[in-house]
Amino acid sequence: MKQKSERRQSSGSTLIKHVLLGLIVFLALFCLYYGSVVAPYSPKLHDEDSTLDPFLGGFVDDSGYEFQPQNVDSLVPKSIPVCDMAYSELIPCLDRNLLYQLRLRPNLTLMEHYERHCPPQERRYNCLIPPPIGYKIPIRWPASRDEVWKANIPHTHLAQEKSDQHWMVVNGDKINFPGGGTHFHDGADKYIISIARMLKFPGEKLSNGGNVRTVLDVGCGVASFGAYLLSHDIIAMSLAPNDVHENQIQFALERGIPSALGVLGTKRLPYPSRSFELAHCSRCRINWLQRDGILLLELDRLLRPGGYFVYSSPEAYAQDPENRRVWNSMYGLLRRMCWRVVSKKDQTVIWAKPLSNSCYLKREPGTQPPLCSSDDSLDKAWNVSMRACITPYSPKMHKGKGSGLLPWPQRLNAPPPRLEEIGITAEEFQSDTSTWHFRVGEYWSLMKSVLQRNTLRNIMDMNSDTGGFAAALNDKDVWVMNVATVNNDSKMKIIYDRGLIGTVHDW
Questions:
Q1: What is the pLDDT of residues 471-490, one digit of tens each?
Q2: How many CA atoms lie within 13 A of 344 on its CB side?
Q3: Domain boundary residue, one of 123, 153, 183
Q4: Alpha carbon distance 482, 340 (integer Å)
Q5: Residue 205 contacts residue 195 (beta carbons within 8 Å)
């Protein structure tokens, strides 16, 4: 009886196995048939007009149309080579070697060779930029303000060239930043206080109760001025070209300081009009008088009503004939632009831009430089040539005698006056702000379990809209580079009106 029972159980198990096997085969055949009926066409390997794309894993016919395989993995590149170590610091559109190889002839006196010149399609690199040899995880903010790993930015010639100015000091396997500059050897912190004193701001605070928030630092060096402004609730766009000291901006970003490559050459800087409360130039070696003062007129476009230009350079104090000549010419030009000297002390002079159009309207007919025409789009800043004309205010700003912005931090979440220029209502703006506060709160709660303290510092929003994402991160110890695409660049002025920073870019 026992043996018969065991045979029946064995027979039952075998039957179940066969049934399951048959079911699996049926389902497999059904899926194969169904997929062959409804799946879209994809070319076969032996199709004469198609070739395998080595990066995307798809197929490209002669028309350039790419056929993607029907699975998610196909969206991930199959193989991307690593660039040669010689390209570990490559900046494709600011590659000086490319200028010579393509036999371009930029005007060196106008700094055109430091502006963007992107390679043609066939010269673009499809490889991963390798880190320097010995690269280490960067030192975290706020310690990074004062020191970085030498291996991450293996350039020490600036430390030798600027040894008497306390820019940076090589100390073993680290580079230290004492906070000095060409015109503030005793440190950026003391220099910032001295500027506030010159302006007679309450409590020697350069922020002036939140009325000075965004600053443009031209020729910023290693960005120590911008670094020390952060503790004053001021954020600076520290700007320097990819010149013989190309690693300056690398140092700034490694330190965790907002900065960007750029130069006052022939094109407008990629920021809308009236973006900054203060512009700063400390021995930035810029010829402000060239081409009828076109570079000063670009600063005029970028400064808000009543904005300041802090200029620390020999022209402001040296008594030799050449520096006196430059000073007199510069002084005369800025007077014709209706700027006035607010303060002049030691090595620094501070000018202020007018609050309204009143001074412009009182100038003698034919006075140079002229006012820009009403059809000149003052906010267009991507690949637009500079214009040697004064940027007038709209009738509304002229009447209000100012930008109409609230002080920082109230302006961060308050609808700015220029919203109406881009067709967004205050309600839509506030709704977007609330949405991003909720989203970022959710993001942060999900990430905090895997992120150590101060892991994040430099953040980029690749399509920033009106800056809601960056505004929601304001209570975190990070800074956001907001990027507006060229077809959505009108919203960048809202970013700056909120007291944030960003740039226009063509991806």
A1: 999 999 999 999 999 999 99
A2: 11
A3: 123
A4: 33
A5: no
pLDDT(496) > 80: yes
> Using the 8-state DSSP alphabet, how is residue 103 labeled?
T
Residue 188 domain flag = yes
Quickly count: other Cβ atoms within 10 Å of residue 214's Cβ: 24
Q: Are 338 and 359 in contact (CB under 8 A)?
A: yes
Q: Are residues 201 and 349 in the same domain?
A: yes
Residue 339 shares a structural domain with residue 469: no
Co-location of 103 and 179 in the same domain: no
3 state SS for 148-179: EEHHHCCCCHHHHHCCCCCCCEEECCEEECCC
- Chain segment 310-354, per-residue pLDDT in tens: 999 988 888 999 999 999 999 999 999 999 999 999 899 999 999
Same-domain pairing of 302 and 421? no
Query: Which two structure tokens, joined as six digits, stand for 147?
Result: 């020191």
470: number of Cβ within 10 Å: 26
Q: Which residue has the higher pLDDT, 357 or 86?
A: 357
Our count of domains for the chain comes to 3
pTM over 0.90: no
Vertex 497: Cα angle to 491 and 500 (nearest 5): 90
- 153 with 295, same domain: the answer is yes
Q: Which two tokens stand for residue 243?
A: 């010149």
Residue 484: which H helix or E strand, with range? strand 479-485
Amino acid at 211: N
Average pLDDT over residues 241-259: 85
The residue-averaged pLDDT of 274-290 equals 93
CA distances from 219 to 284, 320, 370, 410, 426 (A): 5, 24, 27, 30, 37
Q: Which domain holds residue 440?
A: 407-507
Rounded CA separation 200/54 (Å): 63
Clarify whether residues 383 and 415 are in a common domain: no
269 burial via Cβ count (<10 Å: 0-12, 13-18, 19+): buried
